Amino acid sequence: MSDTMDPMATDVDQQELAQQLLAQAKEQGIDLVGPGGLLNRLTKNVLETALEAEMDEHLGYEKHDVSGRGSGNSRNGTRTKTVLTEIGPVEIDVPRDTGSTFDPQIVRKRQRRLTGVDEIVLSLSAKGLTTGEIAAHFAEVFGAGVSKDTISRITEKVIGEMTEWQNRPLDRVYPVMFIDAIHVKVRDGQVTNRPVYVAIGVSVNGERDILGLWAGDGGEGAKFWLSVLTEIKNRGVEDVCITVCDGLKGLPEAINTVWERAVVQTCIVHLIRNTFRYAARQFWDEMSRDLRPVYTAPSEAAAKDRFVEFSGKWGKQYPAITRLWENAWSEFVPFLDYDVEIRRVICSTNAIESVNARYRRAVRARGHFPTEQAALKCLYLATRALDPTGKGRARWATRWKPALNAFAIAFDGRIN
């Protein structure tokens, strides 16, 4: 007979045990949750059993084992301690030794929260809740008091993690990189709008890779962008095929300085959205239908003809729209040279808008931030929530293999 444990049998045993515990709790009138509830008691028993096992290992013998007599150190009763867990406060008895050398790991000395609680705090903070709101949440849901200072200390722990994330090695090549800005309100004497720039790379595996976050003051130029892009290059990015951005001063020049073969592409989604800013809402649907032949044209010449038709219809009423497209034309037309699969990746709102939506939700919930660092921390927590591994990655949400083939052909020898 094999000694290997049957997983199905184990599942059945666990189910039977759970059913027995539930039946016993029901007979005794014990609630499932809450102080003194079944989950509370089980958590207490598991933690105390683990602590006793740690004490056995520390002393070198089990409780009541005669081999421990005269060993020089022995058990010395317990002390009561309350720890906050994901199910609320749990009171446990922590064993002590006469030599006071026992250093438990499952619940460390002076530890008042299990790590799962810290993750809950970070998750709530990533959603934009303030320290006061998080404290109120714990009081309401867990019946436990967690001070604002404690919550601040928990979130401050991620500063080091954020620094490590911002400096981590990156992939050698990204077929596409998006650069966009999120605006946050920072109180520096007075409340001002500050941009925080986010760079998102699409990896050769079709993953969105959030490369980093950089705070600006709104007056950035080529020098700033050269610094940011050089930092990305120094982290291992040797090549970027297409960089999608939107009218950021000095950025196109910096891109081609760092990656001379990169194509700078204006963001089609932003270009269309900016078009509607100049038009009355009642015309948006009609204007959208008239614009579609421009950015779906098979060639630049065809796109130019369709744009002449568009301008003939709307230019007199909205001359700013014509000027907007004419100014962006040189950075718009590279888009027309690519296969439809590449166009879909470049034009997709999923690439950066889903991330930006998370950022905006967190920023909007907070209102304004006391410092630039606090704003960056909030945005990093939102990034962290997208990918619990902390690597800043999230799966690409569209067909990727056809696009990868198109990139490999269009940028021959660069996509490996």
TrEMBL record:
Pfam family, one: Transposase_mut
UniProt GO molecular function: DNA binding; transposase activity
Keyword terms of this UniProt record: DNA recombination, DNA-binding, Transposable element, Transposition
InterPro entries: Transposase_mutator (IPR001207)
GO biological process: DNA transposition
Record bears the keyword ATP-binding: no
Top-rank lineage group of the source organism: Bacteria
UniProt record similarity statement: Belongs to the transposase mutator family.
Function according to Swiss-Prot or TrEMBL: Required for the transposition of the insertion element.
Protein name: Mutator family transposase
